[in-house]
Amino acid sequence: MFNLPAFKDREEAALQLAQRLKNRKLRNPLVLAIPRGGVVTGAVLARELKAELDVILARKLRAPHQPELAIGAVSEDGDMYLNALATQVPGVTEDYLGRERDHQLAEIGRRRKLFREVRPETHVSGRSVILTDDGMATGSTMLAALRVLNTRTPHEIIVAVPVAPAELLERFHGQCSRMECLVAPEDLGSVGAFYRNFDQVEDEEVIRLLRDFGTPFPRPATGAA
Question: Where along the chain do its domains lie?
Answer without folding.
Answer: 10-212
